[in-house]
Every structure is written in structure tokens, then in C-alpha cells.
Design a protein that fits this description.
Keywords: Coiled coil. By secondary structure, the chain is an alpha+beta fold. The chain is built from 27 helices and 27 strands. 31% of the residues are buried.
């Protein structure tokens, strides 16, 4: 979800959302807070809570550990609003500091209701005062009053008038005679009529939710036993329609001379709205709003508990770190709504694996973490990982388009000896990245060797961010040969990185990192511009004109304005479009066939030729190949390596050549290193080839001597 969408969502919620730092300085103030308080965001940002939204003499103090509490908010016009606050502390990774988000609900109307109830209590108290001047007098005359029915009837009528005027329910239980009285509001609150049920102590017990009974009974017993000065409890009561309503019950017992309770009376308040709000706040704090799974905070809480139990009881557990493969391309191309549909679908699959010992969570973005408590064997965990990889690998139909999903899974085992939450999660993440590097759609178990590789990867990433700035990148060019004439008809631009202290860093070590970090876009732009500039320079120097091939990454293909950017580069370098060929891999094309067809068609209309690289290593589906506007098919080196020894590789190569020609496409073979390979390809009418047999990739100056001869001898 983007920052703008999050801000819009927060500003449209009818709740206070205020962020402040450890010094109680306000750093965020949503629209609802502005509308209620009268303050604009710019009036309060940077100011402290106390003295701005709360008067200093009120002793306003916010305790991060105190999640739920009630506190008045001082409006700009001097009015006060009652607010039920929830504090949630979180770690700001950007600022490296702890922040607190205070979420509040306006309960002014509820407080007004409570005040009305208090007024009713005062009226009831006046009625009771007519019955007896003091509690001692009530005790002395209680048994006498039982015989004065007429006086009791008159008092009862006045008592009922007060009850009917109260919004909350009033109840009274005669303990000695085991008789109960409730106001009409008590039944109305739950949807019953007087004919539906007879309210007594037994009925009350039956209506309480089973999960709340023990707590409710204990609170009442503690008060009747004299352990608490008042009876207070919150629980759920079953309504007539079968649903449950949250109520807050308060009361006080009347005792005889020996201190034994003889009567207890009190009120019952509907707090369902408040409870729903608290539940919503709790859900926001510990659960993912999109998938309903546990969020990162809940996962870490559950993992800490599991680690503690593992240490106490010598148990073992495991953490699986999951990351959807190529998911970013879905969001970048079709928006977050399409990505959200896939995330919800994957979450539904993962939920099927959940049980008492397995906790499923969405860690963030397209990352999920699974904690398994009290495992019996490593095989139990790896089998689960296999099942998850298999289940997630599927085709999703979203917004009328097909998307393929796979997942990479990293596994870490833990026991009583390694009880560090962050290290476990970091190592599981590291194991997941090792899967990404080795081809994705699989799982791997963490080893210390992976950790050292991860550190090296981070080091490479840091160096790579400055490679362009420090002019450390360069291009080498590998000639592409006409098979029959041995004439150079093209060159492929290949990037090289010469670090000042680490020396030449192989492309396989830094290109995947550039892809993952997004640096490939700026690097790719540089490669495109430099390759076009160099080709035009060769033409101006009088060399025979050749087509220059430039590899296009998935991130580049899906960046906005790519067609305009390439057109601008061609205009800037004055290179005619027909002398530029863009190469994309098979996996990039199949990841979103509809988008690929449209984008490549737009590029081809400029006059650029398109080549499909690494053909045969991916899906190799004729259904998509016939739709793509491709000029050239490049046979992958893995087939060329074995065409003289492996009949399967030879048959595949022959089929690719025949098929391509039937579809009016040229064919170029990569990685040709022997004369036997060259002769086989020549006999099968392969149009072009490139490889060490003809020339290695060379710097611009060195390749010029090869281009000068035009014909390559082998």
C-alpha cells in the first residue's frame, strides 16, 4: 500500500490519530483531529501534548505501556471532549527512534449518558432517603418494612419513575429471598419483552457468555465476600436474536448487622460500541488489515513466547521466511489492487496450514513468516515448506489477466540455545535470499555460509550505489557473426564493473543485486545511452554499420515512459532506430504477456528490433511466442554446449531453428565455442552466432580491430 493511500485512509477515519515522539512532541495530526479540536495540523506540529491539547494543571500524562484509558482533550475554543485513548508504540526505522501513535474515540455522548445516569442515581438516592435517613436505619428497619406493603408500593412507584427515566438498566437482587428486579431498560437492551423471560439470578447466569462467566462470577463473589468496596465487571450477555452484547455492570451490596449481604443493586451499561472500537484498535495493532493474518508485531510476540518456552522446556521450533517471486512487477504494472488480490489469495492458501503450533503472519509487503512451535523433526518442517511451495505455485486470474506466482522460502531452526528473535528472523531472511539467487520457487535451510555471503552481498550493494557516480562501469562488446559469410553483422553490449579496490566484479555477482534494489534502472539507462553513443561513433568513424544489442531488464521494461526515454536517447545520440536491438528474456515476457505484447509492439513501431534471449530455458510456449513481436530468437548457451553430445539438446536446437524460420524470425546461437558446434548450427541453417570461437567480449578500442576486418576467421 502506498504512502498516499495510507494517508488518505487515516484522514478519512472518524477517529483521532495523533503521532508523537518520546519527548511528547506532536509529529502527525489527522483530519478528524483537526475537525474536532479546531486546531490545524500546522498549529500543533512540533508542540507538546501537555499545554496544547491538555492543560498542564490537569496532569495530562501519556504512558506508552498503558494501552487503554480515558482523558479529556482541550479544543481550541476552550471546550473539552472526552476521548477513549489507545497508545501503540512502534519503531521508526527511518528515524531510528521510537514513536507512539495515539488512537482515540470521542466518547463525549457516552459520558453525557453516564452523567444522566448519575442524575438518576441521585433521584433514586432521594427515594431511598424517604425510606430511611441512613444505611444504619435501613438495616434496623429492613425486616419491618417487609410488612408495610402499602408504603412499599408507593415508594416502588416513585422508584420506577426514576428507573424509566434512566438510559441505562437498573437491577436489584434480594439475596435473602432470592428475588430479582430489573428495569424495563434491562430487557430492552437485550431485545427481550417481559413475556420472553423472567429475570432472576439463574437467568442472569445463563445469559452470560461462557468465556466470561468465571470472571463475572468472581467479581460478584469478591464484592459479596467484602473483598471489594463495589461490584464492577464487564461481560457479554446473550440477546434474544442469539447475538451477544457487551455490558458494564456496577453495584453495591446492602449488609445486615453482622456484615452479611442481604441485598445488592446497581446499573448495567451497554458498552458494545466501546468494545468494538477497542477490538478494532487491537486488530489494527496486531493483525494485517488486508489478509487478516497476524502482523509483524504479533508474530514477534508469539515468537518471543515460543523461544521462552523452548528455553524452559528444552523444545525446538522453526521459522519459515516466505517472499513471493517477481511480485513487484505486478504492482508496478497493474497497480496495488491487482497485487492485493494475489496477496489475499496466497494468505488463504497459507491459512490452510495453520494449527495450534503453527502461526502464519504477513511480515510486510509480499513477505510472510511462519513460526512452528515444538517441532518433532527437521523433516516435518521441510515437508511443510515443500507443500507451501507447491501450493503457492499457481496461476491467478486477476482483473481478467493471468498472473503466475511462486514463492521462495528460507528456513531457520531454533532451540533453547539460540533464543534471539531478530537473529532468527534475519537468518531466515538470509536463507530465503539464497533461494532467490539459485532460481526461486524453492526452499533452503540457513547455514552460516549464507550469512557470510549475505554480508558480501550487502557490501556489493553499497559499492554498486556509487559505481555510476565514480565512473567505474564500462561496456564490452561481443561480435555477432553471420554463420555463412563469417561477417560481423552485430555486437552485443555487455556491462563490466571494475572496482578500485576489489577489482573486476563479475556481472553475475552484481546484476541480480541491481535488479533487487532497483539500481538496474539507472544502470540500464546508462548502458543504453552509452551503447547507442558508441555505435554512432563507429558509424561516424567509417566502420561498417552493425546493429548493437542491449539487454533490457524486467524493471526497465515496466518503468513508466520507457518508449519515450528510448526515443529520446536515439535522438540525443543521432542513432537510427534500425541499428538498435533490445533483448528481453523469456521469463520477463511470460510474467505478464499482455503487457509485454503492448510494450514490445510500441518499441518495434519506433523501428527497433526485438530479440528473445535465453530461449528454451523458460516456459517456451508457442501460444505466447506467436503473439510477441519478435525479430530474433537467441538459443541459450546451455543447449549449444551439448548439441554435439546430447541428442536431446540437438533435437531441441533443430526444432527451435525450424520453428523460428517458419514464423519469419532470425535465429542466433549464443556461446559457440567449438568448430563442431559451429558446423552443426551451420548445417541446421542457424542464421547467426556469437561466442568465444569468434571473439570474446572486448572493450570498444579492441573490438574495433575486429570490426575493421569485418570477416572473422576461425
Amino acid at each position: 500500500m502506498g504512502i498516499e493511500l495510507i494517508n488518505n485512509t487515516l484522514n478519512n477515519l472518524d477517529i483521532f490519530i495523533i503521532v508523537w515522539d518520546r519527548e511528547e512532541n506532536i509529529i502527525n495530526f489527522n483530519k478528524y483531529s483537526e475537525s474536532i479540536s479546531g486546531y490545524l495540523q500546522e498549529e500543533v506540529i512540533g508542540k507538546k501534548w501537555v499545554g496544547t491539547l491538555f492543560e498542564k494543571d490537569r496532569g495530562a500524562y501519556f504512558n506508552i505501556k498503558k494501552q487503554s484509558y480515558e482523558r479529556k482533550l482541550q479544543c481550541k475554543d476552550g471546550q473539552e471532549v472526552y476521548v477513549w485513548w489507545n497508545n501503540i508504540a512502534f519503531q521508526d526505522e527511518t528515524a531510528k527512534s521510537e514513536k507512539v501513535i495515539s488512537i482515540g474515540m470521542d466518547i463525549t455522548k457516552q459520558k453525557q449518558t453516564e452523567q444522566e445516569l448519575m442524575n438518576s442515581y441521585e433521584e433514586l438516592e432521594a427515594v431511598y432517603e424517604e425510606l430511611a435517613a441512613t444505611e444504619e436505619e435501613i438495616k434496623q428497619n429492613y425486616f419491618d418494612l417487609q410488612n408495610k406493603e402499602e408504603q412499599l408500593r408507593i415508594s416502588d412507584e416513585r422508584y420506577r419513575l426514576a428507573l424509566d427515566g434512566a438510559r441505562d438498566a437498573i437491577w436489584d437482587w434480594d439475596i435473602k429471598r432470592n428475588k430479582a428486579f430489573t428495569s424495563s431498560r434491562w430487557r430492552e437492551m437485550l431485545g427481550y419483552t417481559e413475556e420472553d423471560l423472567r429475570v432472576d439470578h439463574l437467568t442472569w447466569k445463563e445469559l452470560i457468555h461462557s468465556d466470561d462467566k468465571e470472571r463475572a462470577f468472581k467479581a460478584q463473589k469478591d464484592h459479596l465476600d467484602g473483598k471489594t468496596p463495589f461490584y464492577t465487571s464487564e461481560y457479554r450477555l446473550r440477546m434474544k436474536n442469539g447475538e451477544y452484547k457487551w455490558v458494564m455492570v456496577r453495584g453495591k451490596a446492602l449488609r445486615d448487622e453482622e456484615g452479611n449481604p442481604i441485598r445488592i443493586a446497581g446499573s448495567q451499561t451497554d458498552i458494545t460500541e466501546r468494545k468494538n472500537f477497542e477490538e478494532k484498535i487491537n486488530f489494527m495493532a496486531y493483525y494485517d488489515s488486508l489478509t487478516g493474518l497476524n502482523n509483524r508485531a504479533m508474530l514477534e510476540m508469539r515468537l518471543n513466547k515460543s523461544l521462552h518456552e523452548s528455553k524452559q522446556n528444552n523444545l525446538r521450533g522453526a521459522v519459515l521466511f516466505l517472499d513471493l517471486d517477481n511480485f513487484k512487477s505486478v504492482n508496478d504494472t497493474h497497480g496495488h489492487s491487482a497485487g492485493d488480490e494475489i496477496l489475499k489469495g496466497v494468505a488463504a492458501i497459507l491459512k490452510t496450514f495453520e494449527n495450534d503450533n503453527i502461526v502464519i503472519s504477513r511480515f510486510g509487503g509480499d513477505e510472510f513468516v511462519i513460526m512452528i512451535h515444538n517441532i518433532q523433526s527437521n523433516e516435518q518442517v521441510t515437508n511443510l515448506a515443500k507443500d507451501i511451495v507447491k501450493s503457492v505455485n499457481k496461476c491467478w486470474l486477476v482483473q481478467g489477466r493471468e498472473f503466475y506466482s511462486t514463492v521462495s522460502v528460507g528456513i531457520v531452526f531454533y532451540d533453547s540455545k539460540n533464543c534471539d528473535t531478530q537473529s532468527i528472523l534475519s537468518n531466515a531472511d538470509c536463507a530465503m535470499y539464497s533461494v532467490k539467487k539459485s532460481g526461486k520457487d524453492n526452499y533452503n535451510v540457513f547455514t552460516m555460509e549464507m550469512n557470510s555471503k549475505l554480508k558480501g552481498r550487502i557490501e556489493i550493494e553499497n559499492y554498486l550505489r556509487h559505481a555510476l557516480e565514480y565512473n567505474e562501469l564500462s561496456l564490452h562488446y561481443q561480435p555477432q557473426i553471420d554463420q555463412k559469410t563469417k561477417e560481423i553483422i552485430g555486437v552485443e553490449a555487455l556491462i563490466r564493473w571494475n572496482h578500485p579496490t576489489k577489482g573486476l566484479i563479475p556481472p553475475n555477482d552484481f546484476i541480480p543485486i541491481a535488479e533487487e534494489t532497483g539500481l538496474i534502472v539507472s544502470i540500464g539507462d546508462w548502458v543504453l545511452r552509452e551503447a547507442c553513443r558508441q555505435n554512432k561513433l563507429w558509424q561516424d568513424m567509417g566502420y561498417h554499420k552493425v546493429c548493437i544489442s542491449v539487454n533490457l531488464s524486467a524493471n526497465q521494461l515496466k518503468q513508466p515512459g520507457l518508449v519515450e526515454k528510448i526515443r529520446d536517447v536515439l535522438i540525443e545520440t543521432e542513432l537510427e532506430p534500425k541499428w538498435l536491438c533490445l533483448e528481453i528474456t523469456e521469463s520477463i515476457a511470460i510474467s505478464d504477456i499482455e503487457f509485454a505484447v503492448k510494450m514490445l509492439t510500441d518499441l518495434k513501431e519506433i523501428g527497433i528490433s526485438i530479440a528473445l534471449d535465453d530461449f528454451g530455458t523458460g516456459f517456451s510456449s508457442l501460444s505466447y511466442l506467436r503473439r510477441l513481436p519478435i525479430n530474433t530468437i537467441k538459443i541459450d548457451k546451455s543447449f549449444v554446449d551439448e548439441i554435439n553430445e546430447n541428442t536431446y539438446a540437438a533435437a531441441i536446437t533443430e526444432a527451435i531453428i525450424v520453428m523460428s524460420h517458419k514464423m519469419n524470425m532470425n535465429v542466433i546461437a549464443e556461446g559457440v565455442e567449438t568448430k563442431m558446434q559451429h558446423e552443426f548450427l551451420l548445417n541446421e541453417n542457424c542464421d547467426m552466432a556469437q561466442g568465444y570461437l569468434f571473439s570474446r567480449p572486448l572493450p570498444a578500442g579492441s573490438v574495433e580491430s575486429v570490426m575493421r576486418n569485418r570477416i572473422v576467421s576461425i
